[in-house]
Amino acid sequence: MKKVLPTSLLAASWIVSAAAWAGHPLPKYALIEIPSIVAAGGSMSAAAINDRDEVVGNATQPDGAPFFGAALAFFYQHRSGAVNQLTFGSEQNSFAFGINDQGIIAGYAETPDLPQAVLWSRIGGAEGLGPASIAMAVNERGTVVGNFDCDVADCAAVWSGTTHVFASLPGLSPPPPPPYCFAPPPQSNALAINDKGHVVGWAEAVGECAGGAVEWRDGNITLLVPDAASGSSVANGLNDQDDVVGVSGDHAFLYHRGRVSDLGTLPGDASSSANAINDDGEIVGVSQDVNGNSRAFVYVNGRMYDLNSLADTGSVTLQEAVGINSQGSIAASGTRDGQQYAYLLKRVR
Fold first, then answer.
1. What is the pLDDT of residues 228-249, one digit of tens each?
2. Which end of the chain offers a freer environment for a tag, N or C, measured as fewer CB atoms within 10 Å?
3. Measured in Å, how far apart are the chain's first and last C-alpha atoms?
4. Model confidence, pTM
């Protein structure tokens, strides 16, 4: 089963001009390292953040530790400083990808044969959503999106209502026009959902032509950004204004009211990807140079900034920002002394 982990120039009609922002100071952040739940030498990576500054993510045990190589989902509560491992039955490997403000966490656990989508709760407990499935995100209504094994490929799915009734999401049909083509079978994955119930992700079409970044709304699928000549297009996140961010080819993009804008890269870099956007239009993601060295970015006031330049990072290098909440707090991953850690960045200006 394919496991997609969700590892931007703006429309003039929406973004205030650079001149209008000239008097606004750059944002500044306080850096908080999330305590590790694995042995020394293991890694921690953030995946999502909610409006309570709670962060979920994933850790890996190092070689030589009990269950070395095991993947462990974690839940960090900033108010108490507590970090909890998320488990599901006796399974050793678990992954967390999304969290809402009620503390409902979406992810999956690995069974001996196939993964199973799981919802965890802040107050404890876990609910399996069925075999051969992965939960990627959950909104404030408790609607969950992700993917499931649809025999020949992975297909986008939604679980709705208090009982989390399962339904598959439609694929692209007919296929989009040439010139970009690929070999079947078709696949799709739902990666994010807003509080309106609108869903984004990616899909491939039936036939010989590629798909791209898509949105599902009211039971219908729309191709937002076709695959680029330089690579696939994926929608990674959206806000409640239906602004969508992701990656197309090798650059981050913003989709706003039918217009696609290339967000470029940090100076000197070759590629980028946008991972999340809040309702103020602030975007976070990752920018890479030709050697694959990564820097986390935040896109504010119509410009992309290296997140490392906006916080007192010391010996830490922030490599990827994965989520941003309504207060501007950011969840990110970075390295310190050669090891990877998860971080919360609290906006202080």
1. 888 899 999 999 999 999 999 9
2. C
3. 44
4. 0.90
